[in-house]
Design goal:
The complex is a heterodimer of chains A (301) and B (230). Chain A has 301 residues and is α+β, with helices and mostly antiparallel strands. Helices cover 69% and strands 8% of the residues of chain A. Chain A contains 9 helices and 4 strands; from the N terminus they run H-H-E-H-E-H-E-H-E-H-H-H-H. The two termini of chain B are 31 Å apart. Classes of the chains: A alpha+beta (301), B alpha/beta (230).
Chain lengths: 301, 230
């Protein structure tokens, strides 16, 4: 098979069928962008889970002056504090690390988190309870901690912060599934479009292919120009999708979202750059598979 | 050598077979006319030789190769050994005479030098020198068929199959084409030509195989079309 012949055929084919070529490129670009977005969203959820879960601990809030829990009789005493600490440390290795956070510490952290927010003016150090923060080896072992200290005098409440985030992650996972479903639907549409484009192209060149068959051109020589056309279009589509994703990362995430939402860990370039090759692989594989399948049906006999 | 060994071809949606028990041999270097009215099975014989169709019963051999058993992978190689010419020329309208002929070599992977050497030579053979840059619609029917003939023989096939090559041409032009086929035949190429052109068959006095409703009803050397018109 001569390279110049095939490349000439591909060029001629693309030009002859310009509207279909454009439609194919746009369709591939859109579906791959969606597909990439779904993958990126998944990476984002994973990253956030890792980031949050890593920081999340069981919080054992201690009684303050105004606490109304039945284990509280006024503010926690030094004696109770020591007893609670002792119990927690006795739970190793389930309780990996035990920190004490005073009201003042809690206030400092609060100030950091809500810097510049008007909420700061309404909160004083007294309003924030002192607490023990316990890192546990396995999130499922929360109950062990809760059972051990939950009913001790001086403990106001035991909170698993993970529970608060679970709902949030559920929404994100739903979003991710939705994006993936749309992406798959678009990829399916793209497959149909590739098949139709190739069918039209094969019909437009039926004279050539008929002659090629009876002069003894190999099947690959006959089919390769069509397959390369589809692959070429999808490569351009994948390039457009890649540019879109790079721009989304640079302009939307890095420039707009990240500076304003500091408490969220966003996907890094590593994750973006991991997705880009997948777009090319998926795009060209779909084009090649759909076109060869169509050619098998329409170039025979 | 071509051998039809009790070949029957039954098309799916037809009551009568297109070919019925055809049993014959065509030796290398022969010139054979296949004659008979439309639907007598001439084209089917050519399609079977090209493996465009497969026989329902019986084997067809070309140079000891069982045509029915050629795999789709080996089929291109097999077809490179034969040239084909059709009634409707089948030239590419957007390519010049030269490009039309070169196309046949390009698609089988011939290199540039070979193409530049063979195309002018075959143009000379069919007396179309000087017309290589014309497009098919700028040529007469006879000239177009010469281009098609040039394309069919440019790869020097051992066997040339012609399916009503003069069906669209006037008698004088037709005779020119057949004389050309005769010249090609003299270089050692086997020629099988399906036709219902009486005058030409009578004029050429070649082996004539007459078909009627799929059966061979006459096979004679130096035949004429005479019987067919009875």
């Amino acid at each position: 098979m001569r390279y110049s012949f095939v490349s000439r055929e591909v060029k001629a084919g693309l030009k002859r069928n310009l509207t279909m070529t454009m439609a194919l490129i746009v369709s591939v670009a859109v579906s791959l962008t969606l597909f990439g977005t779904a993958l990126l969203l998944r990476a984002q959820v994973d990253r956030m889970k890792g980031y949050w879960y890593d920081k999340i601990e069981v919080s054992i809030f201690l009684c303050g002056n105004s606490s109304i829990a039945f284990t509280c009789t006024g503010a926690v005493t030094e004696e109770q504090r020591v007893a609670i600490k002792g119990t927690l440390e006795g739970l190793k290795p389930t309780a990996q690390e035990v920190f004490y956070e005073s009201s003042a510490d809690a206030y400092e952290r609060f100030k950091e988190q809500f810097e510049g927010s008007s909420i700061l003016a309404n909160v004083s150090a007294d309003a924030l309870p002192e607490s023990f923060r316990v890192k546990i080896d396995n999130p499922d072992n929360f109950d062990i901690i809760a059972n051990a200290v939950g009913n001790m005098q001086g403990v106001e409440s035991v909170q698993d912060q993970r529970k608060l985030l679970e709902r949030f992650f559920q929404i994100l996972t739903g979003l991710q599934t939705f994006a993936l479903a749309i992406a798959l639907a678009m990829l399916f549409v793209t497959i149909l479009l590739v098949m139709n484009t190739i069918r039209v192209a094969a019909f437009a060149r039926r004279r050539e292919t008929a002659i090629m068959r009876f002069v003894g051109a190999s099947n690959s020589t006959i089919r390769m120009p069509f397959i390369l056309e589809a692959v070429f279009c999808s490569t351009i589509g994948a390039t457009i999708a890649s540019i879109g994703m790079v721009l989304a990362k640079a302009l939307l995430i890095d420039l707009k979202l990240a500076p304003n939402l500091t408490f969220i860990a966003f996907v890094t370039w590593k994750e973006v750059l991991f997705i880009l090759p997948m777009l090319f692989v998926v795009g060209t594989a779909i084009a090649a598979a759909a076109s060869s399948l169509t050619l098998r049906r329409h170039l025979q006999a | 050598m071509i051998r039809f060994d009790h070949v029957t071809k039954q098309y799916p949606n037809s009551d009568i077979p297109a070919l019925a028990d055809v049993d014959l041999v065509i030796e290398d270097g022969e010139f054979v006319f296949l004659v008979g009215s439309s639907g007598s099975g001439k084209s089917t014989m050519i399609r079977l030789l090209l493996k465009e169709e497969v026989s329902s019963e019986g084997n067809i051999e070309v140079d000891s190769i069982n045509v029915g058993e050629i795999s789709s992978r080996d089929l291109p190689e097999f077809r490179r050994g034969m040239g084909v010419v059709f009634q409707d020329f089948r030239l590419l309208p957007n390519r010049t005479v030269y490009e039309n002929i070169a196309f046949a070599l390009e698609v089988i992977g011939a290199d540039e030098d070979e193409i530049e050497q063979r195309v002018p030579a075959v143009l000379e053979l069919v007396s179309l020198e000087g017309k290589e840059n014309r497009f098919p619609n700028e040529l007469s029917g006879g000239e177009q068929q010469r281009v098609a003939l040039a394309r069919a023989v440019v790869n020097r096939p051992k066997l040339l199959l012609c399916d009503e090559p003069t069906g669209n041409l006037d008698p004088t032009t037709s005779l020119g084409i057949v004389k050309l086929l005769d010249r090609i035949n003299r270089t050692g190429t086997t020629v099988v030509m399906a036709t219902h052109d009486h005058a030409m068959v009578d004029e050429m006095r070649k082996r004539t195989i007459q078909l009627e409703q799929g059966r061979v009803i006459r096979d004679e050397l130096s035949g004429s079309y005479r019987m067919a018109s009875q």
